[in-house]
C-alpha cells in the first residue's frame, strides 16, 4: 500500500512480475540440481557399497534417508519458507545439497556417507517445499497452472539426468569426483537463482481477513483431504515404480535393462504431461477436474504394468506417464486455494510434502508383504494397490476447490 501525494489517498501497488516462463524455468532447473543429486546413487549403488564395505541393507539408506527426512522436516520447512521467503529457502536448500555432496565426496565410511546424504536430504525437502511457494510468489496468478506444470518436471528431469550421466562418468572417474561434479551443479544453480530472480520475498498478496497463525494450516479440512489424496497416489505410484522392474525381470518378460527402460519412459513422458496439464488448468480454469482424470489413470497403469503381456505393460506405462503424472502439478496448484490464505501457502506446501513422503514410504514398505499374502504374486499385490488409487479419487472429490 502506498500514499498518492497529489490526492492524499492510499493506493495499492500493482505487483510487478518477471516473464513467467523465465522464472518458472530458472526455479525448476535449480530444483533439478537437487533431484539429480538425489538420484546420483541408484545406478552405482553396488559400487558405493563395495567401496565403503556396506551391506545391502545399509546401502539402501543412501536413498531411503531422503524420504525419512522429508516425513519429519517438511512442515518445519514450510514454516521457514513463511518466515524467510521462498527464494532464500530454495537458494539455501540447493547450496546445502552442494555442501552435503562435497562432504560425501570426502567420506571414508558408510556411516559418513549416509550422514552426508542426510544433509542433502534436508536440502532436498527444503527445495521441494519452497519451490512451489516461490512459483506462487514470483509468477502472475493467471499463469500459475503453466508454471506449476513446468515445476512438476523437476524430479523427472533430475532423475533422467542423473541416470544418464552417472553410469557414463563412473567409467572414467571415481564416485568421489562425481560427487564433486554434482555439488558444483547445485551451487552454480543456487547462484543463478539468487542473481536472476528479482526480490527476496516475491509478491506477497496481503490477506484482507484477520491475521493468521502457522497452526491455522492444520484446521483446513480441504487441505487435509487434498494431502490424503496425494498420499494415496504416491503410495500406489511408488509401489508400482519400485517393483515393476523386478516383476518384469523375474517373470522372464524382459531383461534387466529392458525392465529399467519401461520405468524410465513414463518419467520422460511425465515432463510433457505436467506442462500440458498445467496449461489446460489455465485455459479451463480448473484443477480439480484434471486432478480426478489424472488420479483415475493410475488404475489402468497398475492393472496393465503387472500383466503378463508386454504390449499391455507398455500401454500401462503410457497411462502412467501421459495422464497419471499430471497429479503433482494439479495438487501443488491447488494448495493456495485450499489453505484460503496467502500466508499459509508455505506451511500448506510443507504438509503436502509430509504426506507425499509418507505415502512413498508406506508404498514401498507394504507392497512385498501384500504380495506374500498371495504367495508372492506381485500382480495380485498391484491389484490391491488399486484400492488406494480409488480412495485417492474419493478424497479428491470430497475436497472443495475449483
Task: Describe the protein in words.
The chain is mainly alpha-helical. The chain folds into 2 domains: 18-196, MFS general substrate transporter like domains (Growth Hormone, Chain: A, Up-down Bundle), CATH 1.20.1250; 214-398, MFS general substrate transporter like domains (Growth Hormone, Chain: A). The protein has 16 helices and 2 strands. A two-stranded antiparallel sheet has the order 1-2. Strand 1 (2-3) and strand 2 form a beta hairpin. The longest helix has 30 residues, at 221-250. The model is unreliable at 1-13 (pLDDT under 50).
How is this structure best summarized?
By secondary structure, this protein is mostly helical. It contains 16 helices and two strands.
Assign the structural class, choosing from mainly alpha, mainly beta, alpha/beta, alpha+beta, or little secondary structure: mainly alpha
Q: What is the CATH top level name of the largest domain?
A: Mainly Alpha
SS field, number of helical segments: 16
Radius of gyration: 21 Å
Largest sheet: 2 strands, antiparallel
Largest beta sheet: what is the strand line-up? 1-2
CATH architecture of the largest domain: Up-down Bundle
Number of E-type strands: 2
CA-based shape: globular
Classified in CATH, the superfamily of the largest domain is MFS general substrate transporter like domains
CATH fold topology of the largest domain: Growth Hormone, Chain: A
Provide keyphrases for this structure.
single chain; 402 residues; mainly alpha; Growth Hormone, Chain: A; two-stranded antiparallel sheet; 16 helices; 1% strand; globular; disordered N terminus
